[in-house]
Structure formats: C-alpha cells, structure tokens
C-alpha cells in the first residue's frame, strides 16, 4: 500500500478516514527508519572525512571540505539538515554502545528503562531517539537548550534534568519548540554562571542592519536580546491586540478599538510597521522638544517641483500623482511628499520647471510642540470619524496645502488638525481635502458631500454644551 500510494494522489483521496490515518502512521514509521539509516550513513561519512585525514578524507577526495558538506551534496538538503543528520547518527551510535539492538521492537515509552541506562548524561536522549520515544527535532531542541555541563561534576545534574524533561515532554505532548524552551529554563536554574554568560552573549549579539532592495524599499534586520524585545514588543502587541492573538478588550473604549482593528484593511505586518514608526516618530518629537538633538534637529530633505505638486493635488485615485525625491535621489509619490511635508517629517525643497529654487523650507517641524499640545487638547485624538487613536499617535495635518501658495506655509494652530498616520495617508492618497469654517472642520471626499469632523476632546464637548445652553 505504501509503495503504491506514494505517487498516486487519486488513490489516497479515495481512502476512508481510518485508512488515511493508518497510512500516515505507516509512512511516518517508514520515514523514521529511513532517517535513522541516513543519519548513521552521514555520521560514517563524517568520520571518514575527519580533518586529520587531510586530502585522503572521503569528502576531501570528492572535492568537499568536510563531511556535512558532502552529505549535503549527496542528499540535496541544507547544510543545517546535513549537520543534524551527522549529529543524529552520533546519537544512534551512542545508543548502540549503551544498549545494542536486539532485533525486537523497543516497546512503549519507559522512563525507568532510561533511568537505568549506563553511560553519560546524553545516553537517555540517544536511546529515546533510537527507540522512537523522542523525535530527532525534540532531541536537538533538548540538547541545544540544556547545552553541555561546564564540568564533569555537573554531569549527574544534567542527566537528571534530561530525564525530567523527557518525562514532561511525554506527559504534556510537547513540541520540539516547547521542549527547547523548557530546557533553556532548566539550564539557567542548573548553572547560574552559564545563564549569566548566555544572557551576556545574547545582549552582545544585538544588531540593527539595513539594506536596500531592488524595489527601492529598505529591509531592516533587527536582533534583540529577550529583555529589549519584551520592552519593544509589549506596547506594540498591546496596541494590536486582539489582532495578534492577545487578550480580548473589556472596556467600552477597548471594545471600540477592537472593532476598529477588525475592520482595518491593513495586514498585521502593515499595522506593526505603522505602529512602530508612529511610536518612534512620537519619541523623536518628544526628544526634539526636550532639546536632545540640539540645534541640528534630525531631518531629511524632500525635493519636488511645482508641476509634480500640481499633479498630486489634481489626481484622482488611480491617476499618476507626480513624483518627488527623498534626499534628492529616491523616488516617492508626490502625494506621499505632501503628507510628509504636511507633518514636517521632511524639510521641503520646492523647485519650478526651470530648476530654480522657490522654497527650501526650514530645518524644523511645521507645528511647534506648543501648537501640538494645543491641538491635542482641542481635537482629543484623530478627528477621522470613528477613529479612536489618541493624540500621541497622531500627525498634524495642515489644512492649507503647502504647495499651492507661499501663504499656506504658515503654521497656525487653527489651520491644522490631528489625524493618525493611516487616515492622514488616506486624505492625501485619495485627493481629499479638509477645510475650516470658524471652529468647525470638514472632510471633502471627491464626489461626496462634506462631512464634519468632530472633536474627541472632553473640554470641547463641555464648551459646545455651554454654548448651546447660552443660546
């Protein structure tokens, strides 16, 4: 059945549920036997390719540097998988030296049998793998999580720990990942010095790298130690719960936030980026307000021509919206440039069609910290209908487009409102406008009637009530 089923999907599809379960179990047993034989062969190839054999080694005489590389070539696997085969074969050899194979089936799991084994601390792991009481991945996770004892005097502690972890893995049906994490915790408890060294090594391994992709985007590679990761991930995951599988919200505000997240069209990955950059931008703004950057506040120039700004202003969704340049060299849409100029994220540089500079902007954000505080009190958060983002997670939108007239480049509090990044992008990307009549702001969506944008501020609600009562 196994031989005929492997190439024939139609036959498998016609099997009854009990039969397909039995087939999968049979195939699994066969795969484990094949893997065991492969690992023994891989270990033997590695032994025949030992460094001390030099050019006479098996791998070296076939043009490879070592045993795992030769195994990789022969099997077509990854180098990591080849190394795992070599290591697993070593475990099986250890098991053979402790308890030779008798030809009979090993029987059900038996912790007492493992406890009675002679040999070193790894012997129970080796025999458990040979007897198929642990998978190869589980054994790898257990060994890497526990590590090796720093001295012979700790070997008994390691053996007892390995046995206890094997027992727990059986009882709780742990995956390899579960077992590896548990083994790491046990290691920290067994050897405090090793735990300190491990923690120090993890901290020293921290890094942040960035590289540009062919698309023009930038790829960031961030490695953090567990403590720093918790400090960073905690606020992010809390903001996106329950989209990320966190606890469901309970208060009315939290329930409204959860409903907003459920309806948000962005992917979790996009939401994480937007949350992260929003928190980072808020931190930069706070540091700048405190004078952390001195007079040289961090900025990047964004260069755009009057014609491209006109395209961005007049374009409808789907139309070409003009091009601007970040730092003079990286193309972005002129709509994105307008939003970035609007928030003051970049220093604008406006050129006419002859190449003459019309406005080179200012090396500061358009709205001062004092103005932002006033807007926060007045707006109470993002003014977009139904949005619950607080002021600290919002950007300041300039109601009068910067590129239309030099008169629009003033920074008056009354001509700006708070929008979260997502809705700020929505305004610019869809050709929407925001206008003001007295103290009332309106959203002008193309082809739709104006929508008033209500404040979420308690004090503004209080003033409205007082005004109506006075009337």
UniProtKB/TrEMBL annotation:
Residues 167-379 form the DUF222 domain. One of its GO terms (molecular function) is endonuclease activity. Pfam families: DUF222 (PF02720). Keywords: Endonuclease, Hydrolase, Nuclease. It comes from the Bacteria. This is HNH endonuclease.
